[in-house]
Design a protein that fits this description.
Mean pLDDT: 94
Distance between the termini: 31 Å
Number of helices: 7
Helix content: 25-40%
CATH class of the largest domain: Alpha Beta
Order of helices and strands: EHEEEHEHEEHEHEEHH
Number of strands: 10
Largest sheet: 5 strands, parallel
Oligomer: single chain
Radius of gyration: 22 Å
Structural class: alpha/beta
CATH architecture of the largest domain: 3-Layer(aba) Sandwich
Strand order of the largest sheet: 2-1-6-5-8
């Protein structure tokens, strides 16, 4: 699976993709993440990629030409299943979307900055707009890293234990049950006896019950759905 990420701040994405699960996925050849600097596609000497908004107002708007040049070049090299724009007014990202996107082959991600990007880029090229929450960040780089992480860990072969992702919170529309590890007794705080019983059916029943209780207490809206 390949991700092409277009950004005005490529250095901001170096660390998130250079460690842990995402690094292993790339080393295994399961995932490929390519970050493109938008300034490389600017035609002016200053390599600026923004301009004043028509109609006045505060802030700067990212120009259409650099984005269009980069997008057209990438699309001439391969076919993309989705061109995603990270935006606070997009559809809120969730586990269902991550599952869906993990089955694709090539994804392009556009990272906005400043006041936003020229609407014509969204109209002409973008196939999906995604938000990671009802708040505004300085740019789309961190949200891009979030969705790439959520998607890649679902690809078969990425996790050492492929069943791990299937038991994550939200996979079954429930939050995950509490988890424990050694020691079984820490200063009088004990692991529930059922987890030490070795009885798989009872353990699974307990985990499901705890997941329901946790979801009811913290995210009752998930049960309503």
């Amino acid at each position: 699976m390949r991700f092409d990420i277009i950004t005005v701040l490529p250095a901001l994405l170096e660390s998130p993709f250079a460690h842990s699960i995402l690094q292993r996925a790339q080393n295994k050849g399961i995932a490929e993440i390519v970050v493109h600097s938008l300034r490389d596609y600017a035609s002016n000497k200053q390599k600026s990629v923004d301009d004043y908004p028509y109609g006045g107002g505060s802030g700067m708007v990212m120009s259409i030409e650099p984005f269009a040049k980069c997008i057209e070049l990438l699309k001439s090299q391969r076919e993309y299943d989705d061109v995603i724009f990270m935006s606070p007014d997009g559809v809120t990202f969730n586990q269902t979307a991550a599952n869906e996107l993990s089955g694709l082959k090539n994804i392009m991600v556009l990272c906005g900055h400043y006041k936003g990007i020229d609407q014509r880029i969204r109209d002409l090229y973008v196939t999906r707009e995604i938000s990671i929450g009802d708040y505004v960040l300085s740019g789309g780089e961190l949200p891009a890293a979030v969705i790439v992480d959520a998607i890649i860990r679902l690809i078969p072969g990425v996790l050492n234990d492929e069943t791990s992702a299937l038991s994550d919170s939200f996979q079954g529309e429930l939050l995950d049950a509490p988890v424990y590890t050694r020691p079984a007794d820490w200063k009088g705080n004990k692991v529930p006896d059922v987890l030490l019983s070795g009885h798989e059916a009872k353990i699974n029943e307990w985990r499901h019950e705890q997941a329901l209780l946790r979801t009811q207490a913290r995210r009752p809206d998930l049960l309503e759905d």
